[in-house]
Specification:
By secondary structure, this protein is an alpha+beta fold. It has one domain. It has four helices and four strands, in the order H-E-E-E-H-E-H-H. A hairpin with a 5-residue loop joins strand 1 and strand 2. Helix 2 crosses helix 3. The longest helix is centred in the N-terminal third of the chain and has 24 residues. The radius of gyration is 17 Å and the shape is globular.
Amino acid sequence: MHRTKCTAVITSVLAPHFREELREDIGESPYSLYLDESTDVSVNKLLCICVKYRSQKHGKFVSTYLGLVNLLSADACGISDATVTFLGEFGLDIKNMVGIATDGARTPQETRRLINFRATRDNEFLKSKMIARKQWEI
């Protein structure tokens, strides 16, 4: 099989199959995200999204790659917008997100706050965690 045909098979057949299988395995269970932004050699801003969840299929916690997103802007609003949009397109409900991990830089910290704010509006578990954390910070 030549490179172009192999690429077409992967992107048109295999990738959608495994993506749907992953989405079904996550289902409605709680999950956490790992986010890391980067810039490739052609100066494109990218966001790598990984997920950790309890697999219904394997009966254990699994961490895996979820997707790579092109960023329009690498500030906190751009990253949080891209993340929320990606989750919607992937079919994951933000209400089921129970955690988010980023590196220690300023923009990821702000991104985590924005995504937590969006998720917290309808997620009682995250509200309780945010309230408990604020009480300890005082």
